[in-house]
Amino acid sequence: MATVVCELHHAHPFADWTGFYRVVAPELLKIGPYQGGHGCLVIPFSRGVCGAAARTGEVLNVPDVDAFPDHIACSSSTKSELVLPVWNGKGRLLGVLDLDSNTPAAFTAEDENWLVPLLAEVFHSAEI
Q1: Residue 88 gets which letter from DSSP?
Q2: How many Å apart are CA 6 and CA 81, to the nearest integer?
Q3: What is the mean pLDDT of the chain?
Q4: For the segment 36-51, what is each residue's pLDDT rounded down to a tens digit?
Q5: Cβ-contact 48, 120 below 8 angstroms
Q6: pTM value?
């Protein structure tokens, strides 16, 4: 996870915070490896963009976080966010990958299109 975060954070021109939130208990995410400023330490599945992605199992690309109901402002400078569920090959949700940007609408469908298969390949055998 640390290597994936480091590479993504430095490769994406608009990523200001990049990190994983790991499933540590039923309906609960806890911060994992990340790059950037401080992140939220714990996020329940019932709150924010990360919680919604974990709860629904869907990729969430939010061009304006202020318009997202119940957005958790871990950083007041964040304007947009891309959150991708991370599954292993057995269909177990391991956590979510969260990319935040201080730029509105920073993430595209192209970002989603290469990140989803990358995460599937990297974490296929993971049992985190």
Answers
A1: -
A2: 17
A3: 95
A4: 998 899 999 999 999 9
A5: no
A6: 0.95
